[in-house]
Amino acid sequence: ITTEYTQELWTLVFFSSRIKQEWNFILECRKKGIPQSKYLKNGFVDTDEKVLDTYGKTPQLQKKRALSDEANKERNKFIFQLSGQQWTEFPESLKDQTFLKEWHVSNTLIQTIPDYIALFQELRVLELSKNQINHLPVEIGCLKNLKVLNVSFNNLKSVPPELGDCENLEKLDLSGNMEIRELPFELSNLKQVTVVDVSANKFPSIPICVLRMSNLQWLDISSNNLRDLPEDIDRLDQLQTLLLQKNKLTYLPRALVNMPKLSLLVVSGDDLVEIPTAICESTTGLKFISLKDSPVETIVCEDTEEIIESEREREQFEKEFMKAYIEDLRERDSAPSYTTKVLLSLQL
Fold this sequence. Notes:
This protein has a domain at 18-52. Helices cover 27% and strands 12% of the residues. The chain has seven helices and twelve strands. The strands form two sheets. Strands 3-4-5-6-7-8-9-10-11-12 form a ten-stranded parallel β-sheet, with no helix packed on it. It has a two-stranded antiparallel ribbon with strand order 1-2. A hairpin with a 2-residue loop joins strand 1 and strand 2 (44-45). The longest helix is centred in the first third of the chain and has 29 residues, at 3-31. The two termini are 20 Å apart.
């Protein structure tokens, strides 16, 4: 890897760390009821620990914190957490804890999800991001109460049709697996899903099953191989956020104008040669954002795994950046109407 690329990567890591630090600080302030004016200076986050200390000494807030801590202790009884690269498989004792409601497993070397997951009928949240998981077991379809499935940044290449049996699923995150090309039609049964993130994969088009998720509100299919959008995309009449940047789109269909709740549309503008005027002139409060793509230099490296990992790191950083950017846009929703339509050119 070239010295320039290494320096660029370290820069990305630095800014990613800074974004995490600032957002964690903001979340902590909000938990303690600290108004925005106390932790923002000239529009920028001021991570001054004194802000937290001052508000932490208020008796009323101390009482709230004590109640919150007690609630968290009770909740943690039903949560399984695992992290660290010393783990290559799930502990054997997990099999006997079928009362658990949440699994949070990240940054391990675990490759497979055990078949006995079918026994966890109370499971609501399955967070398995940043591991080495290479397939989902068909038994996952037995989790009728599952609401959140996050298997982002693993090594998945496909998704089993049985996932469509998780009828109460609300959030599906398959981002950063780099190799998924399609989703089984059976996922059309997921009528409760509101969030789908399949970014950083190899989808050539929006899967048909996604177009049939009638309650979908957020769709991130950025960093894929999309060349066009389906003309019937407006059947997603509940969709509010559509992220399409870093694809190969050359035009946007007029059907996007017919989506009554679409409030944020993000694309990459370098390949676009046709954008319906109605999108730019929308009177519905749509924020239309065109990002300028930054071409990545071709890396000559014998180790393919190193290339893939560097791509994953870049994608993770860009996703964190976009989340922070979108959150900032939402906080400005109370701005005057003339600022609700935004056309930006950003260098990522």
